Records
---
Amino acid sequence: MSAVSYGDRIRRLPAGTIPATARTFFYATVAAAVVAAAATARVPYGHVSWPVFCAVLVGGALAQVFATHTTGNQVFHTGLAFSVAAALVLPPELVVVVCVLQHVPEWLRQRYPWSIQGFNIANVVLSGLAAWSVRAAFARQGVHVTAAATTAGVIAASVAAVTFVLVNHALLARMLRLARGHDLSASGLFTPDGLIQDGVVAAVGVGLGFMLLHSWALAVVVALPLVLIQRALALPTLREQALSDHKTGLLNSRGIDQPARSEFARARRLGHPLSVLLCDVDDLRGINNRLGHLEGDAALAVVAAAFRAELRAYDLCARFGGDEFLVVLPETDEEEAVTVAERIQAWLAENPLPTGEDLLPVGVSIGLGTLQGDDPEFGTMLARADAAMYEEKRAGRSSFLTVG
């Protein structure tokens, strides 16, 4: 699993609030950010380039707005580069201003709860001031980040950028541990992919900082790879969205078509069993008419939850139509498929849908089709499952299992 990305990673917490188990750490992080900002504000600083400050602030704000939603409910944006650049070229007071204000457009657009946005800001402020402190420590030894970009200056800037990433990841890893029980491996924050992903963006921030001091034209050129990084992450997400059903998170009919045909071809070639379940939600139209379409969507989500609970990792599942779901069960004969279908129906019986003061049982009618030796294509066994299901539907029965 790829790492959760900078800034918005805390969005993975449920219900938009900080759980009680993590509340103390949340307040401690915010307090530490306030104390660090107050302490570093006392440090004297020389000339401030206000155009550079404005450029970093605007660039960071734009990067926050154009975030990319990646797999696993994760969010990535390139604001880290501008936060690192701020730590390299601005006094600590303005580093804090950049880290805080670059989140404002994003908050106005997304309206994240104050606790989540507060942790994000405090995390970035502490990371930015930690990077600035490393830069200041090098400066006291006579190594400065200047437009000349000496070898020593580049090393100092790089160490500061690495410090930013490590502090940011460490704070977030602790929050995810307290709030969700995720250890380091589950969060992905300290995996090679997680560190490289943010490390590359931080390296762009180092180059951006030097170029802002040297030439604005070059700074624009250095920042262009950020657009490529953002788009490179966006394209797989757009492809995934095109193959997914937005109401259930399952595959859609287009997304399951090729994998299902591949499983059919493999089963035919190797002589292995293969079964399909065609599932129809009972009286979904009635639920929509009586309770509204939002409750109808919730009923679909409950059915999807049943599939996630009872299917194996390599089974295929899709919302095939308005109230139909298709399940493809590799390496599964008829008897085993019947057991799977019964487990799905039992799960739904034990987990009714809450609707105000009542609990609404959500049932599914299931038709089963199993691969036969003379089936010429996947659609043949699918048609048997479909015919079996609708034959019983016409007979007026519901929440049943029929073998075709």
Note: Residues 165 and 199 are 7 Å apart (CA to CA).
---
Amino acid sequence: MGRHTKEFKVEAIRLLELGERPASELARGLGIKRTLLYRWRDELRGKGDAAFSGAGRPRGDQLSEIVRLKKELKEVKEERDILKKAAAYFARDLK
């Protein structure tokens, strides 16, 4: 299916609202599901100009990279906290 630009979505909704073709035919011609077309329409009606501002859901490979980076960040924060405590402990002994 792929990602679609905001312009693509707005134009698809405009064509839907013109009503010249049935929604199922329009969606098929655009290479999307009919339900997606209605979801876009509802989002545009609900959010107006703020609709479609996000980057969408990450792809599978991006999602696994995000999970890996979150795990790494957690480990680095734990290491940092341990080093802070150690530095405070040794600084106290120097006084």
Note: The domain at 1-56 is CATH 1.10.10 (Arc Repressor Mutant, subunit A).
---
Amino acid sequence: MKICITVSSLLENDAIGNDVVHQLTVLNNNDVSTVVYTDQVARVQMEPYVTNKSKLFDIIDDRDNILIYHHGGCWDNGQKILEKAKCRIFIKYHNITPPEFFKPYAKFFRKYSKHEKYCKKGVEQTKAILRLNKVTKFLCDSHFNAKDFLRHGIDESQIKIVPPFHKLDDFENAEIETDLCRKLDDGKVNILFVGRLVPNKGHKHLIKVIASYTTMYDSNIRLIIVGGIDPGLSLYLDELNQLTKRYQLQEIVNIKGSVTFEELCTYYNACHLFLLMSCHEGFCLPVLEAQFHSLPVIALNTSAVPETMGENQIVFDAPDYQKFAAAIHVLYNNADYRDYVANEGKKNIKRFSNKTIEDQFLKAVL
């Protein structure tokens, strides 16, 4: 038996790419001949394992082999691969952001933004994959993701929950930027959010929580937003900057964009709380990163967020900004409560150790 893992692109510092690389390693370490097929590879270390289209088709033409197809958007070439495959097909599903989040950010001369169009096509591709009626198993990052297939009538026996592999262990030996750490140690309450600068991540909610905090308590607080800024979403960034100015938070809200791994590690170590107001998450790896660094998490109860956070965490059902601001104040000023929440978070990440996920993955695939 041979396995081919397919993904549209294999990029550095990409969550889906990390999942693919770890899957490949685990399977080959268990004597299962495994290769990867992708349209774009930017990970030099992976090039020896990337196969060409001819060898891909040889593998998927054999009914005894397995194709693991990573689905998290629209991939035209991937659809063609699925249509040609005669082998067993396992869909590894990372969720697709509902396109309506991007609707307000189309340029005035376009009907759709490119992001909205991409997500619409991704949703349609999910339906096209199901119409093929060829998928053996659905490997979903979360129970929340699994609902996308259950609502289409897929039998629960075909669905396995397999969280994505990650690189949390890399934080163990990460260097910290001492100058940055010193700047952040100035007596302010440091609030962190990590996630791409896209509308579903709830950045406007974050800013409004901080605005409520400054009104209810004081301005001795700092919001640090870390995550890649897409130039195609300049209207969204403009909206966030305007909101920051409206509430006079220019000295408080810090949108950092992409940062180095050392800087990311520093922010996790130098901040006091992690604030999560995202409206849609198929998993939510930054929650685990925060818990790994003993950061208490205050979150909005949406999508896969509570499932990822685990028990005994602070989750609110609605974006009540005053309630979130009060939670920040209480946690920051109550060391025992803060430590309790952080310790419960530490317990939670044990559910998602790579060793645990390896066992779940191998059981689902082999």
Note: The chain has two domains: 2-165, 170-350.
---
Amino acid sequence: MYFGLTDEQKLLQATLRDFAARALPPPERRRLFEAGTGLDAELWSAAAEVGLVGLGLPQRFGGAGAPLLDVALAFEVLGEAALPGPFLGHALASLAIALGGSDAQRERWLPRLAAGEAVAALAIAEPGDAWTPESWTLAASAGALGGAKLFVEGADRADLFVVGTAGGGLALAARDAARVRTLAQDPLDRTRPLFRVAFEAARAEPLPGGREAAPAVLDAGRVLLAADAFGAAWKLIALTVEYALTREQFGAPIAQFQAVKHQLANLAAEVEPMRGLVWYAAHAFDEVPGQRAAEAAIAKAHATERALHVGRSCVELHGGIGFTWDCDVQIWVKRTMFDRAWLGLPRAHRERAAALAGW
């Protein structure tokens, strides 16, 4: 059995890394981070042109028809580059329509979503860290939604919301300024701002296959968050190695100090095993459905928690400057904080994995 990437997958990552380097040089990344708006129209259009926003959608609707493993490889690059924009919510909302939508819903929305002409958001979280279908309480009746959702990525710019409803279903709600109101929440990651979204008798239509699609969409989200965290963790290590090679103390680069070498080596040893964990979880989503839920939960719990540990360690290795606003390390640390928290904290996913294993 071959455990590496295919030539096509290597080309995919190389192409996206080249795109990110050209579209997001460090000064532009810093500008967008400080602006904190998340979605930059020019960057979004450029990402759509390289196929990033429709990567996992069926080819008949203008997407690339890529399996989740390829989408996860793309999200590694997003994590490395700290690429701002609602790529996660857009990908998951689009997947929900592809898996659970009617033919008419797919025909209406998927071509626009694949082309980046419309932006979709996934609205599922409710108070009390309620992320899972069995905990959703937002009411949907007589073609209208009433209630609020929390931590919705990119809601201020979304044209379409895929909303988790009571009973574990999903519904589509197009933006209506009079009936859908957004309120910014404290930003955890300024590249991916979050919002509270209130639906005030907003017109909605259920996804016919929403109850069946919802668990798969959440599993895909867990995998993509793990992939993003994996990419961010490697970037943090690379930034810290670069700093250690240039920062001098007692007349020598701190990279020559044994304690610094050991810390960096230990961090690399923590991050590298994530690769197989994340890749296999993404592979299992499409190819080993019986293991999909457990592998997604384990990858989300482990990769996001260890990535945040790497981030904190890299801040410390940068010394006093690591705690300042001017140090770019914070961009990726906050990215790992988002990855760890969104869709629930590691403890919840470990409990889920244990329950699935019958423990």
Note: The chain has a mean pLDDT of 95.
